[in-house]
Amino acid sequence: MPAARQPDRVPGPPTSSPAPTRVRSSARLDRLDRLRRLTARDHELLSWLAEHYVLATAQIAAAQFPSLRAARLRLAVLSALQAVTRFVDVTSGDRQYLYTLGPLGAVLYPTQYNDPLRADGREPRSNVERTERIIGSRKLGHLIGTNQLFIDLHAYARTDPNARVHRWWSEQHATAVYAGVPAAADGPSIRPDGHGIWEAGGRQVGFFLEHDNGTETIGTVLRKLQAYDRLTAHGGPHYPVLLRVPGRRREQHLLDVLAGTRLAIPVATGIHQEHPAGPAWTLTHDPGLRRWLHELPSDHGPDHPITNPHRYSDSSAGTQ
Q1: Residues 273-309: pLDDT tens digits?
Q2: Phi and psi at residue 203, in whole multiples of 5°?
Q3: What is 28-135's CATH topology?
Q4: Looking at residue 134, what is its pLDDT?
Q5: Alpha carbon distance 70, 76 (integer Å)
Q6: ∠ at Cα 123 (120, 129), nearest 5°?
Q7: How do the residues of the chain divide into helix, strand and coil, expressed in percent and rounded to 5?
Q8: Domain boundaries, the chain
């Protein structure tokens, strides 16, 4: 009698899954290898991109490298490592590369403040989305222009051992930290395009930057200055507000209007094309003289944890 046919065996689940483990291990080793290839200068650049979103090739070269060629070579390496993401600037006409954080850079330096290019105020869902929003933003030119002032200061500091950028805060950073001070209860809080602490000539000068492209009305500018006045009146820092404008005509218009405006804060106008560290600034209450940035009146304000919780303190140099 023939033997009964045995049913086909249904294979059970594998007792182990070594392939995914090896893939994950390989990915970790690859990331560690890429991390080891980053220099201190690379980390500085990535931290800038985390806070300031985008920088052009020429800006990075001026602030960090001995030549444009050296910058391009290193940036190509960082792009291959996925530390940065690059895209062509089609807004300025020179078609140079612009750089944002890449996937590796975003892991190392996650953005601390809300992305200004997302309408709902939340962080982008991914680094790809963040880059796409920067590329497509109408604020791209304004952002690059704002960053240019600080890049120029960093470049100047590379040639002068007594000069230094002590602080470079983005719009989102400065807005967030000053939004909680008591002055905000009396009206809109300040929203500078940037905030910095600059040292040169043995002096420190804090400042708030308003990068003006000539598109805002004078009334809008005055309302912004009133917010800075409230901050100072409530015990905040007494920093000059820098109105950086595209041309002499716009500057003269602002000087004429502000000459008859009473403000407790110093306000200085300057032109986009002039180097910000040099004699580029005209105080609205004294329009007959161009001053260097480090010559502008500045005071870090009272050392008070409530009215001035973000006071800058450095004993190496005094302020006026």
Answers
A1: 999 999 999 999 998 899 999 999 999 999 988 889 8
A2: -130, 150
A3: Arc Repressor Mutant, subunit A (1.10.10)
A4: 78
A5: 10
A6: 95
A7: 40, 20, 40
A8: 28-135, 140-295
